[in-house]
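Support request from a user on the community tier.

User writes: "When I paste my C-alpha cells into the form, the page sometimes reloads and wipes my input. The last time it worked, I copied everything first. Here is what I submitted, just in case something in the input itself triggers the reload:"
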C-alpha cells in the first residue's frame, strides 16, 4: 500500500469513527470540496485548447486533471468530479473545451472522451494503490489514458465516420499520442511529488 492510499484510508476511517457525527459532517464537506475542486480544475484545463486542422477534436489539458483526480481523491470521488463536470457542462456552464456547453456536446465528436473521463478517473483510483514509484504511476496513467482514447475512438467511429474505425483512429487517437505521453509524464511527476510532500509532512 503506497502512502497516498494510506492517507485516503486514514481519512475514511476518521469519517466513520466513533468520535461523533461532527467528524462525518466534516469529512463529507471536505469530500465535496475536493470533488468540486477537481471539477473546476478539469474545466480550467479545458480552457487550454489547441485546435487541429485535420480533426474536430482539439488538444486540451483535461486528461491531466482526470488522472490527478482519480489518483489523489480516489476512485469514487474522482469519478464523481468528472460526472459533476459533465453535468455542469450540459446544463449550460461553459466548462467544455473552447467554452462549449449544452447537451449537444455529448453527441458531438468529443462526447466519447467525456464519458471516458469518468471511467478513467475511477480506474485510476483503483489501480494507483499498486503504484510504488514514478514509473509504475506512469503505467497506471497510461492505462487510464488509453481508456479515454478508446472511448473517444469508438464514439467518433459511431457519430462521425459511419463505422470506419481506421479513419476514426486517425481523427481521434493518433494525433493525441504525443500529447498524451507528455501529460502522463507530467501527471506522474506531480502525483509522486505530492506523495513525497504529504509523507514528509506526516512524519513531522
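"...and here is what came back when it finally went through:"
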Amino acid at each position: 500500500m503506497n502512502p497516498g492510499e494510506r492517507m485516503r484510508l486514514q481519512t475514511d476511517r476518521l469519517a466513520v469513527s466513533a468520535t461523533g457525527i461532527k467528524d462525518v459532517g466534516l469529512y463529507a464537506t471536505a469530500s465535496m470540496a475536493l470533488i468540486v475542486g477537481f471539477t473546476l480544475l478539469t474545466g480550467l484545463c479545458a480552457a487550454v485548447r489547441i485546435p487541429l486542422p485535420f480533426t474536430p477534436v482539439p488538444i486540451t489539458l483535461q486528461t491531466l486533471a482526470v488522472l490527478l483526480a482519480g489518483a489523489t481523491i480516489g476512485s469514487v470521488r474522482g469519478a464523481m468530479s468528472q460526472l459533476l463536470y459533465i453535468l455542469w457542462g450540459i446544463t449550460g456552464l461553459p466548462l467544455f473545451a473552447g467554452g462549449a456547453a449544452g447537451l449537444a456536446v455529448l453527441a458531438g465528436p468529443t462526447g466519447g472522451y467525456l464519458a471516458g473521463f469518468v471511467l478513467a478517473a475511477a480506474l485510476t483510483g483503483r489501480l494507483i494503490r499498486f503504484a510504488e514509484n514514478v514509473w509504475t504511476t506512469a503505467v497506471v496513467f497510461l492505462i487510464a489514458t488509453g481508456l479515454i482514447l478508446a472511448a473517444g475512438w469508438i464514439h467518433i467511429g459511431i457519430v462521425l465516420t459511419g463505422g470506419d474505425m481506421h479513419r476514426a483512429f486517425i481523427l481521434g487517437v493518433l494525433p493525441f499520442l504525443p500529447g498524451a505521453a507528455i501529460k502522463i509524464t507530467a501527471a506522474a511527476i506531480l502525483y509522486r511529488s505530492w506523495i513525497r510532500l504529504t509523507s514528509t509532512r506526516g512524519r513531522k
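Agent notes: The reload is a front-end session timeout and is unrelated to the input. The two ends are 21 Å apart (CA to CA). Residues 13-21 have pLDDT under 50 and may be disordered. Escalated to web team.
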